[in-house]
Amino acid sequence: MATDKPYILAGVMGWPVAHSRSPAIHNHWIRHYGLNGSYVLLPVQPERINDAVRGLRALGFAGCNITIPHKVAAMPLVDRIDPLAARIGAINTVVAEPDGTLAGYNTDAYGYIQSLLDAQPDWRADAGPVTVLGAGGAARAILVALAERGAREIRLCNRSLDKAQALASEFGAPIRAVPWEQREEALEGCALLVNTTSLGMKGQAPLDIALDRLPRHALVSDIIYVPLETPLLAAARQRGHATVNGLGMLLNQARPAFQHWFGVMPEVTAELRRLVEATL
Length: 280
Ligand code: NAP
Hints:
Blueprint: E1 8-14, H1 22-32, E2 37-43, H2 49-54, E3 61-66, E4 80-81, H3 83-88, E5 93-96, E6 102-105, H4 108-119, E7 130-133, H5 137-148, E8 154-158, H6 161-171, E9 175-179, E10 192-195, E11 219-222, H7 231-238, E12 242-244, H8 247-262, H9 270-277
Parallel strand pairs: 1-2, 1-3, 4-6, 7-8, 7-10, 8-9, 10-11, 11-12
Antiparallel strand pairs: 3-5, 5-6
C-alpha cells in the first residue's frame, strides 16, 4: 500500500446493500491506480439516511454512492445538487467538497450513454426514434440522458400509463407516453430499444414483446445485468441486432464518482468486466 499518499475513504449507502458490486469495482481501481484508500458497504436504514449523509464529513469520507432506496431521500441532505441530477430527480453520488459542503450528482445518465458508446463508438441519439420500456427510477436517468444527447423522439411505454404520462409531462419533448399495449407498434422505425423494466431479471418473468416491427439496424439495450443476456437480448441477437447489456452502465456510472473522490478518471477494462462478471 502506498503510505505516502492520503488515505481516501468512500462507500455506498443502501438498504439492503450487501449485494452491491460497487466495492468490487472501486477497490479494483484503488489497487490498479496504486491509490491509498478503501470503498466500503454502508448499510443505512431509511430512517437513518439523514444522520448517515450528514455524518460523512465527520467520519472522514470523501463521499459515497447512494443507492436504493435513498436516491431521492438524500437530495435535500446535500448542500448543492448538480443541474443534471436535479433534472433527473435523484442523486447516486455525494462528494464532500474541500470547502466543507456536500454536493450531489447523478452519474447514471453518463454511465448509460457511455455503455452504448463502448459497444458502438459511432452511436448517435438522433439516429432515429427511441422506444424506452419502463418508467421507474432507472428510466428517469436514461430519458434525461437520451434527451440531452439529442434524441428527437422518445416513445415511453410503461405498464402503468399514468407513470409514463407523468414523466412525459415532467421532462417534456421529445418524450411521448405510449400505452403498454402498443409497445410493439412503438418499435416501428426505431433506431434504439431500451428495456428499463425489471422484466427479464433473474427470478422475474421475461419481457413479453415481439420484435418483428423493429428495424434490423436498431440497437437493443437492456439495463439488467443479472443475467447478462436477458431473454430480450437473446431474441434481439438471434434477429441480428447489435445488443448492449446492463453491465456497461453499472461499470461506467462508477467512473465519474471515482474521479470526484480519488482524482483519477478510471478505465473500464476487460479485466474489470471479468472480475465483476464473476460476481453475477
Ligand atoms: P423500479 O423503479 O421499481 O421500476 C420498475 C419498472 O418495471 C416500472 O416501469 C414497472 O412498471 C416495470 N414493471 C415491473 N413489473 C412489471 C410487469 N410485470 N410488467 C410490466 N412492467 C413491469 O425499478 P428501477 O430502479 O427503475 O430498476 C429497473 C431495472 O433496472 C432493474 O432490473 C434494475 O436491476 C435495473 N437497473 C440497472 C442499472 C445498471 O446500472 N445497469 C441501474 C439501475 C437499475 P409500473 O410502473 O407499471 O410498475
